[in-house]
Structure formats: structure tokens, C-alpha cells
Amino acid sequence: MNFLLIITYGYVAVAAIMIFFIIRDRRKPELFFARHRRLSVLCLSILVLGIFLAFYSTLVEPFILKTTKVELNDNKLQHQIKIAFVSDIQVGQWKKSDWVKKIVKKIIANDPDIVILGGDLIDNEGTFEDESEYLEPLANLVSRYPVYYVLGNHEYGIGGHIIDKPEKHTGDRSLILADRMREMGIALLKNNIVCPEINNQKICLFGIDDIWKNKQPDFSELNNWDEDKPLIFITHNPDGILSYPANFAYPTLTLAGHTHGGQIWIPLWGPLAGAQTILENSYYRGMNYYNGSPIYISVGAGESGAPLRLFAIPEVVIITLDPNLK
Description:
25% of the residues lie in helices and 18% in strands. By secondary structure, the protein is of the alpha/beta class. It has two domains: 58 residues; 258 residues, Purple Acid Phosphatase, chain A, domain 2.
């Protein structure tokens, strides 16, 4: 069993025992918790809350899938464009085809014009199965919308604690994933630009390879970008924006994932464990700005390390670019 799960359910077991003894001691006037009843109520409240959060974070929140809607003004467009963005599905040990079907259903219900997948589509944390087979439900999107994706660090088997230790990487599965996605008709963006026509207008997409695999992305194809057209820059890791070349105009929008929104987010504190990004914690989730250019960082749809989420509900992001917004 995963170490974090052992800690979580170990806490539940210990807390349950402590609750039993506190309640028992409250019945005997000579014992500590009987003489300090207010303290006993406080301790019981904390222990019960901890048990509730332990079960909620493992059995409830990871299986909620919300729709996050964002609107941005874009004067380079003539007509509205709706983008569905999903990152960090990480199918494998914890989530499989049924979860991907749920994501696909959510996307179709929002009827976007284009779908973008932000990397870490498979978990790849040491298993020997072909996890890419769990992504097959994505094929149901291809007949409806253009679908593109970028690679993340998990496709390459690179975890945050072993970035510079190749001997500990869990294996490069990027080619296996790429074959599966190609069979489904989903196009890879790997340091290249595409400019599909959507709603009788062109929008350009430029996606880079994962920066933990290739620390210096190749931006040469940006020379093919007509800056009169909107540009969506896709980088699995939000730190990819730090490599964006200064001799080009900044993107209309940058899309990123990787952080899982902290996965376990402590109010007034932030992420319980860091995603080892250079950008500060304000870039862990939601809409932010870098050099005046909007960057949306998704909390993702899957989990890393353990099937735990707290105050970081999995999401499908629907971003509307609208020339008529003020």
C-alpha cells in the first residue's frame, strides 16, 4: 500500500482509539478529561475533523470532477472560441478507463471548439502495464473536435525527487503513449506550432516538450507564427513560461498543469508538498499573469503519489476567448 495511505489510515486508527479513551475518561470524575471537559471537547472535535478529512480526501474529493469556466477577451478573433483543457489525468494505478469516460462526458457536455491535453496523461510510477490503454475513451472526442496534447514528466518516468538521477527514473513511456494517441488521431505538440481553422478563423497552438526532460525547449518554429493570430502556448510545467523567448510577443494565453493545485492544499498555508517549480505558489492554480500575459494552471484530473486530494478538486477547464468581452 502507498506510504501516504498508510499514514492517512494509520491516523484514522490512532484517532479512533484516542476518541474511545477520551469518551471513556470523561465518565470518571477523577480522570484528566473529566476534570477538563472543555479541553476534551476540543480534542474530540479535532480528532473527528481529522477522520472526516482523511476519508473525504481519499474516498470523495479525488472522484469529483468539476467544470471550471474562464472567459478572456481576445481582440485578434472575429468569433468566440471555446477551449477544453485537461491536464494530469495520470491513468494507471489509481484511475482507469471509467475516469477517462467521465472526463470525456464532461467535455462533450460543454461542447468546446477544441480540446487540449496538458501532459502527464499516464502515471508511469513503476508498473509494467501499458497504462495508455486506459486513455482509449479519448477517441470519442476526435470525431467531434480537434484534439492536441503535450508530454509531461510522467510520460518520461521523471519524478521531482529524481530529476537528476536517471538511474532511478521509472522508464520512458513517451513513445508508447505517442503510438496510442496517434492511433486515436490525437496530435502531439512537441516544440512545434499548428494553426487550425476554428469558426472560420485561425488560432495557433505552440506546445513544448516537458522541461524536466529537455531543459531548453526549441522555440524555432515560433518563427512561423503570424503575430496577428492568437497564440495558445502549452507547457506541462508552468515553469516553461520562463523559457519563452523575449523576441516574440507573449502568448494570448498559456496553459499548464503539473502542480495538481498542490493536490493537498492547506488553507492559509498552500501546498502540503511542493511540485518543485521555480514560479512561486501563486502560480499553483487558476488564472495568473506573467509579464502581463495570462497563464492558467490547472489542478489536473488525476493524482500523483497517492489517491489523495484536499481542497484541489479535479477539473475540466473550459476557456472562452471572446472578442466582445470588455
